[in-house]
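My hope is that you will study the protein record below before we discuss the fold together.
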Amino acid sequence: MPVGRFVLDVHGESRSTWGANDALCAALQINNHLQDCGKDFRELNRVYIPLDAFAAAGANPEMLGAEKSSPELLRCIHALAGRTEALLRSSDVFASQIENTRLALEVSVINTYAHRIVKLLQVRDPLSERVHLSKAQFALFGIASVVINALRRIGRAPARGVQPSQRDA
C-alpha cells in the first residue's frame, strides 16, 4: 500500500482515496501470490497462503508441489480468490475518486485487469492451468477500460481551485 499512497501523494490526490487504494493494492498482491503459488513453493520454497486457509479447506502447503491441485487445495485457492474479489469490489470506486485523469485511467485499467485475473483464479487451477492474461486480453481489457472510464469522466467538474491543466499534469 505504501507505493500506491506515495503515487497518490505525488499527484496531489486526497488522502480520502487511501482506503480504495489499499484495497486494490492488497488484492493485486493476493492475485500475484495465488497465480504463482505452485512456482513460489517449488522454486523458492515460499508459501504465501495462510495456514488457516489451508486448514479450512482440508489442504496443506505441501500440496503446492504437485503438478495439479487436489480438490482440497483447489477449494482453498478458489475460496481465497472469492475473498479477493470482495476486496476488489471495495476498490471499484478508486478511479472515480482520483482527480488526475491519466492516473485515474491507469487505475481503472489496473482494476479491470485485477478483476479478470481473480475470475480466472476462481475457476482455474494455478498449478496446472494458465491464470494470467494473454497479450490480446491485456490489449482488449485495457482499451475497453480506458474508453469506458474516459467517457465517465467527460463533463466531470474539476476539483475546486485546480485548473484542468494542473489536474491532468
Q: What stands out?
A: The chain has nine helices and no strands. Residues 27 and 83 are 9 Å apart (CA to CA). Residues 160-169 have pLDDT under 50 and may be disordered. The two ends are 23 Å apart (CA to CA).
